Amino acid sequence: VLCARAVRDAFESQNVLTSDEKDVHVSIGIAWGKILVVEDHDYLGDAVNIACKLGEDLAKPAEILIDVGIRERLPAKLPGIALHEMDLTVSGLRLQAWMVGEA
Fold first, then answer.
1. Which residue pairs, CB below 8 angstroms and at least 24 apart, start in 13-22?
2. In this structure, is the dihedral angle defined by the CA atoms of residues 70, 82, 57 and 89, taken in order, positive or negative?
3. Contacts of 97 (CB under 8 A, 6+ apart)
């Protein structure tokens, strides 16, 4: 989560230096679970699929969304971070997620 924020913030800082049409915004999804690594270059599994749905289909530009597995593994309080619970639906799948925000 901290790394995702650092990546997002780095792009947002650089966007100040460019025109709007050249800005780069990231949408990040993070999920927890077992994955299958195929020959060190492909990753498969529910966690991969959920992370992709969160980051590509649901997160808005500059948003970070995490699944329940990540939320369960985070400390109750993170300095400077607020988590906002969301109920989302994508591709017929209901997801409980949290948006990572500023405290």
1. none
2. positive
3. 54, 58, 65, 66, 67, 68, 85, 86, 87, 88
* pTM value > 0.70: yes
Q: Dihedral sign for Cα 51, 53, 54, 60, please.
A: positive
Average model confidence (pLDDT) across the chain: 94
Residue 25 tokens read as 């915004």
| pLDDT for res 77 | 87
Joined together, the tokens standing for residue 71 give 């939320």
Could you tell me which residues are beta bridge partners of residue 95? Answer: 88
List, for residues 32-52, the tens digit of each pLDDT value.
999 999 998 899 999 999 999
